Write a sequence for this structure.
């Protein structure tokens, strides 16, 4: 087969269709010997196309191939005889089946493909959820639904996530945070070692050259999470119901989320020394082609200034562990930056489990909000114990990871409450149930954006494994068998999120000022101890009342009093005197089996809140 070639187009790097032609643009020095190797997918026949040096501009080489059928061919580059996968490839051939052991027969090789969009985005409207209304639900696309494999033919795919959109929305979550869904290598590929000539054994001329090297035996571990260098422009084919249609399946998921006024945020991991131009191109690509609403960036030395100042990304949410706010454009109207790190997690865990806890530190986290930047709060993430395991295990149990239980976080601030692992003892189960409710109350009564891991709402356990990065099995999957027995947990969380939405003063978009700047007779937020208006500053105190003045809310005018008691005894906290005609009503008590009262109940004592041991209560002033 003969191909007609001309010089390509240097404006866009990668391979793409343009009319009846295909343009291939890639990085190469003018002095390099460059070839495109095309593979006829059906006939397995290869064609080697030389790309002339005169088709160069700077360190780019570009060629246009006429009458090219993108569906018929895969490709890779040969540069100076070395095989290269296009880092800008929009499709990867070879990983269509997850953890496919048969790939070893082909030396785990992959090839690239051209994938053009087929989704109509004309009616798509991106929600742009404000940070005071935002609630994050984080999931792993495969692990989210593999436990339902026998019941769901879409298990482990984008379709399975789509099937659960209404379940997630009804709880009150506004945004999905997806662990890596771009192409990455989940298999551990054996490392080939080139043996120097002076140590090569004698061999006959009939021996294959491959016999001269030594390959380390393949590790059977699976890179389940995907935090590794990836093929960033390609949707992971094995996460699709039809691997050849992966890009469109993901696009349909985003569309369905948007139709339900929900956002799609992607985790993107870039190892150190990843090309900064590539990173910017990757973010542009997912925003343009798939209308994603944001990125949680992972990695060091990223081009943050360029990302923050990029006009195309100015309405895309960027989550990272720190920002230099001095480089943010002064005319920025949409607040799209969020600090995402574990600084909420540890004070919350320490207080919940009575380990070196500090009330001042916790209260600072509960009212944490930036003037022009948001904060993501979580108690459990994929890295560490699940929320349920946090109250079931003192120690990590990562033996099945094959690293002698030395991997994973060693400081978990967890507590098993008398028995390591599941327990049949009622008092152990009861205290764990209260701790789970306390954790959810703390998280969703904090000012910043709350985030939970998928399955935490149904008390998902990983059997004490706090680093399930290689557990593509029931340990790392969400255990939906718990769903029917944990409906009360889901109902409680749904009611809690609704309470947060009904009382926006809790999640105020700007920092509290601790003063009566509206001249309504009360400050926006105040702390109370044994006496009203006297918040004890002793960080060792484990009991405090926090009042939010409803007059600082946009519409709702109810006053909210949250009583935190982490002592092992009943405690009384003073209630501030309300305006004439107003009374305190009991709304929620985590010590109860059903924490939220069916009907708000007038408090018999309007001066003190009597709080059960290790529990959180909510009172409403109206």
């Amino acid at each position: 087969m003969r191909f007609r070639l001309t010089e390509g187009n240097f404006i866009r790097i990668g391979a793409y269709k343009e009319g009846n032609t295909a343009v291939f643009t890639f990085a190469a020095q003018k002095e390099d010997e460059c070839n495109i190797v095309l593979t006829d997918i059906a006939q397995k026949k290869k064609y080697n196309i030389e790309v002339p040096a005169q088709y160069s501009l700077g360190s780019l080489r570009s060629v246009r191939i006429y009458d090219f059928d993108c569906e018929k061919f895969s490709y890779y580059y040969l540069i100076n005889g070395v095989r290269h996968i296009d880092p800008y490839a929009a499709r990867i051939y070879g990983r269509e089946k997850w953890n496919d052991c048969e790939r070893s027969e082909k030396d785990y090789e992959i090839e690239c493909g051209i994938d053009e969009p087929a989704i109509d985005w004309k009616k798509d409207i991106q929600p742009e959820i404000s940070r005071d209304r935002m609630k994050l639900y984080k999931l792993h696309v495969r692990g989210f639904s593999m436990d339902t494999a026998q019941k769901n033919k879409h298990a482990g795919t984008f379709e399975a996530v789509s099937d659960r959109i209404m379940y997630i929305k009804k709880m009150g979550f506004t945004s999905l945070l997806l662990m890596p869904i771009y192409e990455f290598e989940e298999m551990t590929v054996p490392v080939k070692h080139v043996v120097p000539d002076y140590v090569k054994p004698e061999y006959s001329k009939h021996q294959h050259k491959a016999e001269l090297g030594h390959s380390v035996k393949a590790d059977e571990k699976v890179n389940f999470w995907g935090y590794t260098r990836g093929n960033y422009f390609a949707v992971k084919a094995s996460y699709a119901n039809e691997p050849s249609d992966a890009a469109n399946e993901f696009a349909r998921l985003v569309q369905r989320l948007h139709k339900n006024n929900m956002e799609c945020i992607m985790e993107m991991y870039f190892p150190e020394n990843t090309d900064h131009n590539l990173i910017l191109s990757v973010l542009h690509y997912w925003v343009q082609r798939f209308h994603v609403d944001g990125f949680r960036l992972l990695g060091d030395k990223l081009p943050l200034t360029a990302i923050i100042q990029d006009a195309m990304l100015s309405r895309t949410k960027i989550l990272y562990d720190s920002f230099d706010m001095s480089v943010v454009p002064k005319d920025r109207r949409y607040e799209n930056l969020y600090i995402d790190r574990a600084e909420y997690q540890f004070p919350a865990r320490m207080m919940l489990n009575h380990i070196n806890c500090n009330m001042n530190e916790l209260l600072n986290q509960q009212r944490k909000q930036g003037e022009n930047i948001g904060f993501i709060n979580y108690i459990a993430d994929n890295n560490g114990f699940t929320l349920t395991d946090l109250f079931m295990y003192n120690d990590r149990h990562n033996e099945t990871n094959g690293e002698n239980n030395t991997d994973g976080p060693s400081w978990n601030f967890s507590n098993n409450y008398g028995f390591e692992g599941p327990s049949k003892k009622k008092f152990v189960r009861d205290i764990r149930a209260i701790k789970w409710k306390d954790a959810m109350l703390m998280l969703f009564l904090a000012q910043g954006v709350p985030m939970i891991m998928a399955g935490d709402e149904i008390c998902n356990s990983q059997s004490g494994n706090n680093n399930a990065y290689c557990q593509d099995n029931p340990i790392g999957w969400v255990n939906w068998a718990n769903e029917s027995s944990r409906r009360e947990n889901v109902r409680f969380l749904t009611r809690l999120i609704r309470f947060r939405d009904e009382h926006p003063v809790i999640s105020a978009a700007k920092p509290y000022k601790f003063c009566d700047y509206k001249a309504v007779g009360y400050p926006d937020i105040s702390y109370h101890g044994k006496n009203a208006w006297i918040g004890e500053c002793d960080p060792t105190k484990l009991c405090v009342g926090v009042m939010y003045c409803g007059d600082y809310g946009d519409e709702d005018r109810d006053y909210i009093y949250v009583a935190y008691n982490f002592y092992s005894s009943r405690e009384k906290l003073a209630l501030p005197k309300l305006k004439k005609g107003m009374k305190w009503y009991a709304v929620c008590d985590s010590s109860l089996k059903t924490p939220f009262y069916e009907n708000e109940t007038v408090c018999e004592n309007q001066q003190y809140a009597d709080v059960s041991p290790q529990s959180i209560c909510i009172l409403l002033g109206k």
